[in-house]
Amino acid sequence: MEPDVSVETSAMIRIAIIPIGKIPHQTLRDYYSMFLHHHTIPLSSISSFYTEEQKSPFTNQPWETGSLRFKFILGGEPPSPWEDFQSNRKILAVIGVCHCPLSPDLDSVIEEFDGVCKGYASARVTRCFGFFPCDSQLEDGGKKGENLRLFPPADRQTQEMHLQTMLQEIAASLLMEFEKYVFQAESAGTILKTPLDSQASLSSEEVIKAKKRRLGRAQKTIGDYCLLAGSPVDANAHYSTALELARLTADYFWYAGALEGSVCALLIDQLGLKDPSLEDEVRYRYSSVILHYKKSFIPENAQRVSPLSFELEANLKLARYLCRRELAKEVVDLLTSAADGAKSLIDATDRLILYVEIARLFGTLGYQRKAAFFSRQVAQLYLQQDNKLAAISALQVLSMTTKAYRVQSRASISNNSHTNEVGSSHADSGKMHHQSVVSLFESQWSTLQMVVLREILLSAVRAGDPLAAWSAAARLLRSYYPQITPAGQNGLARALANSSEMLPSGIRCSDPALPFVRLYSFPLHPSQMDIIKCNPAREDWWAGSAPSGPFIYTPFSKGEPNDSSKQDLIWIVGEPVHILVELANPCGFNLRVDSIYLSVHSGNFDPFPISLDLPPNSSKVITLSGIPTSVGPVTIPGCTVHCFGVITEHLFRDVDNLLHGAAQGLVLSDPFRCCGSPKLKNVSVPNISVVPPLPLLVSHVVGGDGAIVLYEGEIREIHISLANAGTVPVDQAHISLSGKNQDSVLSISYETLKSMLPLKPGAEVILPVTLKAWKLGLVDLDNASGSMGRQLKDSSSPSLLIHYAGPLTDCEDPPKESAVAPGRRLVVPLNMCVLQGLSFVKARLLSMEIPAHVGENLPKPVYLENSASKEAIGSETKMDGLVKIDPFRGSWGLRFLELELSNPTDLVFEISVSVQLDSTEDKLSNGQDATEYGYPKTRIDRDFSARVLIPLEHFKLPILDGSFFMKDFKPDGAVGSRNSSFSEKSAKAELKASINNLISRIKVRWQSGRTSSGELNIKDAIQAALKTSAMDVLLPDPLTFGFRLVRDNLSQESGDSRPKGSVSAHDMTPMEIVVRNNTKEMIRMSLNITCRDVAGENCVEGTKATVLWSGVLNGIAIDAPPLQESKHSFSLYFLVPGEYSLVAAALIEDATDLLRARAKTNSPDEPIFCRGPPFHVRVIGTA
């Protein structure tokens, strides 16, 4: 049998291409490829070389449309014993190919060529082509004979044109030789024999039968040469004669051959026509051909020679002619019939060729599995031959079957997959392609796949191809480890090691072995997460740049394409990055990974390799790192692994597909689950882009980065160190706050940072920050009560946000957004652990009366005398001033705010109360030029309580205004109601502001140790205590009373030894009472003055009176003008020395609604009585 047979094979002229002299293999291939371009020579192109010596036997030669068909055979082939039966099997021309630069002696070339031609007795034309001859060879070439043809040096196109001319000359020579042969065969005739009838021991009957058949066989041979000469009409005429003679002589074998020739002539004659009737005719004739080949079978010759190969060839020719999808069933039947006949073939080579052709035809139909099956039959026939060349052929054939069995090497599909990857979008890259799904489904065909890979491994070892052997062992071990015993796994590991020993160091293979590598996660450093976009065109260049981690994508962004399901990750040039991958070794041997590192195809990333050992049936998560080296996108498809002596690339996508198939039950096993690894969510590789180097601020708290333990209200200054660890200076920086309790950060020394800009690489700046601990809530108190040292949640602490960037582009010429280098955001958490400090037990208002001494002048408060022009005031005067507050009264019923504090901690606290007083007599809300006065400190030991008194009389308003009581008396009318409502709101707002101002003036501070100090938040306590008494505390009485002594100038001599503010007994002492009207209306009153002793008895009236008086003390009628003082003089004469108290009281006549509202009475007939505080008088006796 012969390979690549078809119906048109009978019309092809075989020409042997023989290398002559020394010629490189690749050069010979190049010359041979030039011949292949001229396999068809039109008859119209050879007319200039054709000479008709006598009338041509090819009377119907189609000179305009016909052609000669060449089949070039490189290296030639041995003569076939069936040459007489099929003339197209003969080598009818021999062409020698000589590379003249390596064969300078043309004589030896011609001699060698002549010797070669002697081996081809059937050759009608011989030519020797010499390429690239030198000048001397060109001169001598014409003298060496007509068979030598030299091709002058030229380009390939010129060489091919020259070659085409030479082949046209050869075609003309062959045509003339065919005419000679036909004339000779018709006149003399020859004995045509085949192996079926060429035995020497022929009987006389067989000889007689052969002589009768000679004429029919001669006609068949003439028809063959007519076909070769390109004259199908002449050939068909001779074939018709041969068919008739062969039928008469029962020469079935030659009958079938002539019938085959007639089919070929029919197709050549109607070349290019697609006629169903023609197809039916071919099918019908070939059915007859196959039938007559079967009839020619002789059982007694079956062991020696058989026409079975021609019968099978006829099946293949018809199948190739009908080979298309519409006639697939008929073609499969023909090929199946041919495959059944292969068992009866005597020659193993014929069986090999038959399987090759069947496999090719099945492949043409698209039946890849059937083609792969017969290809394996071919490989097994090769493997039966114990030689290297056969093993190489087997390896090549098996490699072609791997695609059908889905065990192909990744190298064979790399081009297709690369095309798919380039054409696919980001959204599709995370999905499985249809081919992958089919591959996973067909992986259940595992037993046959393992057999194919074992055959490839065996043939590769025999062929001495260690890389192919390593690839086959790797695919076998990686894909089918669950079905391989531990001993088999160890055997494959040894095969991998043995193959690697024969390979050069550092060689790469496209097929990975072990371990399995999958992407675990992208651990993100804070420096990667807090990358922001900069807008140099704005003053607040950081505005709108709040980062969402390292990923710029947000699902709420508009205008994004639908396929942007991947997130974007930004890396910085020169800053190391880390990626977590998980390795799995599901086999029963220890796996040594010499090196593994990230595989980056973009060329702008330097990975760092690591080595490790994986015990049997184990998995391990490792960190792979590297440094981006230049700006641009980065693609990380997988990892590069150096294991078993070979470098391979492990793609994350392949493992993802494998795990997806395992989850759906399409593949045998999940290698990670086999090793005890938990199920991991699929992690996709984000779109990574590298930006230029950026500054990198690193922060830490001076003194330690632990939690800052503060007690409630404690104020402390900490220092934060900021160092530039990058390679670019920090040119821009902005500090802001985020998180909860932002008001706990009292101050940030931003100017300190600003003064250090630009902060060069390696430079450091210390940033002072003042903190104040917040007040714990109820939940926080419960948490803190369990363990005093336990920190609270970090979510309660504020954080510093530092937006910073390197040099920004000039705002006048802003570049595109993509060209602006991004900035960064540093988050400095202020880990404040607030512990419970002093706690409030309760707060309440206290009232007490402290009598003032009657002096020559009314007491003045300290805050009226704090001018720089006046002398300093001593602490005693200050304390007096703090108690005697009101400028128009000496003393009265004071009100104190009592705070009861508890110390549940292990520390000792000192409490100090300070009050801010105004320097003016205006309302406290003015808040200008305030002076702060402190009270003595109060010590609270651990587990003890203490009470702190805070005087509230400092905050009396100087005027009693009716606006505070608008709600109590509303005028009639709609307009009045509207005005009343407005006034009421204004009054309430003023009252609220006054209360808040009062609270803000009182400070309760604590100190513990040398450095720990703070301030208590008493706002809530004061508001709760003043909830029902705010009016009494803030509003003054309508009338205030004061007493003073009236002395003449003579009594104020320096010789007076009486204590200051005292009076003498038995001496008339002039006094006066001062009554101030604190309202804006005239008050008419009836004033009474009473003097009492230490027992509280009236000393002026009664039979036991001890004080005499001069003037009026009772029923004094006074009309007090608004906001002014009224005076009344009188004199007292004290009979008994001692301590006395003067008390003034007034009955207000015709009280207004304002006075009734202040007195909290609703009855218009109820009298309004106003009493002043007692004034102390010290009476001393005379000597």
UniProtKB/TrEMBL annotation:
Principal location: Golgi
Ranges where the Trs120/TRAPPC9 first Ig-like domain occurs: 546-645
Domain of life: Eukaryota
Domain Trs120/TRAPPC9 TPR region: 330-496
Domain Trs120/TRAPPC9 third Ig-like intervals: 875-1034
Keywords: Golgi apparatus
InterPro entries: Ig_TRAPPC9_Trs120_1st, Ig_TRAPPC9_Trs120_3rd, Ig_TRAPPC9_Trs120_4th, TPR_TRAPPC9_Trs120, Trs120_TRAPPC9, Trs120_TRAPPC9_N
Residues annotated as domain Trs120/TRAPPC9 fourth Ig-like: 1041-1179
Record localization: Golgi apparatus
GO cellular component: trans-Golgi network
Segments forming domain Trs120/TRAPPC9 N-terminal: 7-197, 203-272
Identification of the protein by name: Trafficking protein particle complex II-specific subunit 120 homolog
Originating species: Salix udensis
